[in-house]
């Protein structure tokens, strides 16, 4: 599959939704992608099953607070420097790159990195959405090591990290991202082709493109972009349920940048004023309560979207007064397994509620 | 020169004084050194001028808040793991190790690291005392790069750091030390033998041993250990002036662990109650004011010592009510050059006062 300017824009739209509020605003990644498309004709995306078992396949993306990423520009050399250094660490060239998370800007950023390195991007990612912490990747859930990883920053700093466990790795990388100004590029969880095929969440790049295209085409033809999005998500096979969980206006917002994250809560009131939704987020939206009752929780997707344009609004872009729809979607099946819920379920974020699937909480049945 | 158990104890005593309150309490390093002496017969220390020009010579030591180091024990594998990794980075074996700073525990710690690696320690260091930040090393002052450096922590984390400049390197290493629990081992400023000979502060290990021996012998013979210390410092050639700048009791103490440092101030009152001394510290004692007038300032040495035993008291060991003498000493000449004062003079620590030598402030003339 080749990604041209239109597909890039669709990927940005789709990744913004799949980010569940996080992963960084895709707009900058899209601009950087467009600039790169002036140099290369298109970006190459290959299916997971095309990888040789002994290939070296490397997830990458940005780590840090999205609130910082909208103000502090990258130097443009971070990703390539990190990938080259990982090749040096492992002693062989990288064969393909994949997004560590499909959500937000991180769903697009590897396209440019891969083009610079001269390798394709794999149609897969490590989270099936966006999550705030590195150990929430499916590769950690399945017991693979994040190391050696390479963290690079705009100031030219390059750090090779080796830790015994992935939780320490996250703590080290987070500390570094804070020390280096709040945002850094990370190459982590180096995989063999076999490991990528066994563990990555396949098809997520094309699912994001399809979701974005559905919104674009519905807008052009005057159809409802939300319904088009839900249909595209369900059709992808990765996100079998999707739908609106609230409609209203943002009436309260608390947000701070703390410990390298953008953390807070937002309250949305229905237009009649009778109902309210409370969302809590740590980079990503984590839990949604309607009139005090939980209606969606991690790892299921919760995205705030502009109710007129169907643009996804990342947590750092939330503003008082925005008129929004809150859209939920079922997480990919791999993220709902018991082992996965330990790392990406409500308890992993400090919530007392046991995980319940979004379709059950909302009484959705397969369309 | 071979370091046996007695010389190790003398080095601990001398390094504690040269630490100017910082560098970490030498007691733990001494215990670790004694344990190592059960395995090796003695530690080998070689003079700077014995190094081949093309030797690989590596400064190392601990980075972090001394307040943490007294509570959190090392795993014991940090230093060797870091040195081995640096060899791998540079692609050749290390020929000798030196203390990044002679002050405090860091003056002793490299003895054990070197013995494990099977190489000698050089009779030299990078600070001629202890300083709180990595870019305060003479190697940075003289324009050498701290990188590649390797930072290792008790949890098993290993980090190779490469930065364009040494100030960013300090920021990254500090952020890492905080993320890894407040204390970590660092191998930095890898040098050729030629560079070590041109830039290191030679003779500081033997000066520390001589200072410690002087105190030990004076105690044994009933002489004044303070006068013995001053004489030994002057005789070393590195610290040409030394003497008492205050005598009294600690009546006030503020200390907090902030940004990876132990930061605070201490007030000492004379026994008659008529005079007071104010000391400010960031790991190390930085400036001493007697009745409001500056009487000693960085890079000159300021150490709080027990007035009965002549034990040096590091800043994390200061307590209300301690009866102390405040002892000052002239810094090695290399630290007083204009280029050095930019990095280790009062302005580098945020003080408005211009640097004035301790002998001038106190009207000391050469003995």
UniProtKB/TrEMBL annotation, chains A, B:
InterPro entries: S-Me-THD-like_C (IPR048350), S-Me-THD_C_sf (IPR024071), S-Me-THD_N (IPR010318), S-Me-THD_N_sf (IPR027479). It holds the Pfam family S-Me-THD_N. Residues 7-162 form the S-Me-THD N-terminal domain. Residues 165-358 form the S-Me-THD-like C-terminal domain. This is DUF917 domain-containing protein.
């Amino acid at each position: 599959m080749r990604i041209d300017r239109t597909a890039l824009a669709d990927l940005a739209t789709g990744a913004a939704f799949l980010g569940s509020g996080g992963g960084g605003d895709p707009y900058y990644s899209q601009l950087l992608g467009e600039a790169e498309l002036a140099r290369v004709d298109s970006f190459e995306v290959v299916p997971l099953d095309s990888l040789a078992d002994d290939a070296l396949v490397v997830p990458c993306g940005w780590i840090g607070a999205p609130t910082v990423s909208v103000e502090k520009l990258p130097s443009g050399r971070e990703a390539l420097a990190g990938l080259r250094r990982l090749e040096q660490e492992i002693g062989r060239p990288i064969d393909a790159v994949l997004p560590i998370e499909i959500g937000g800007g991180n769903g697009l950023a590897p396209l440019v990195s891969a083009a610079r390195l001269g390798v394709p991007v794999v149609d897969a990612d490590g989270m099936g959405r966006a999550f705030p912490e590195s150990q929430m990747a499916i590769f950690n859930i399945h017991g693979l090591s994040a190391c050696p990883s390479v963290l690079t920053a705009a100031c030219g700093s390059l750090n090779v990290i080796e830790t015994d466990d992935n939780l320490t790795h996250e703590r080290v990388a987070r500390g570094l991202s804070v020390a280096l100004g709040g945002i850094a590029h990370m190459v982590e969880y180096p995989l063999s082709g076999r490991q990528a095929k066994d563990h990555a969440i396949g098809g997520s790049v094309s699912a994001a493109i399809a979701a974005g295209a559905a919104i674009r085409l519905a807008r052009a033809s005057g159809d409802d972009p939300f319904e088009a999005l839900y249909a595209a998500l369900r059709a992808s096979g990765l996100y079998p349920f999707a739908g609106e969980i609230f409609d209203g206006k943002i009436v309260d917002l608390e947000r701070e940048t703390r410990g390298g994250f953008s953390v807070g809560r937002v309250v949305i009131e229905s237009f009649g004023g009778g109902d309210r939704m409370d969302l809590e987020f740590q980079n990503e939206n984590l839990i949604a309560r309607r009139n005090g009752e939980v209606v969606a929780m991690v790892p299921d997707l919760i995205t705030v979207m502009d109710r007129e344009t169907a643009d996804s609004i990342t947590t750092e872009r939330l503003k008082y007064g925005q008129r929004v729809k809150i859209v939920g979607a079922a997480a990919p099946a791999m993220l709902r397994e018991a082992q996965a819920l330990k790392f990406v379920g409500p308890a992993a974020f400090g919530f007392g509620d046991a995980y319940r699937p979004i379709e059950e909480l909302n009484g959705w049945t397969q369309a």
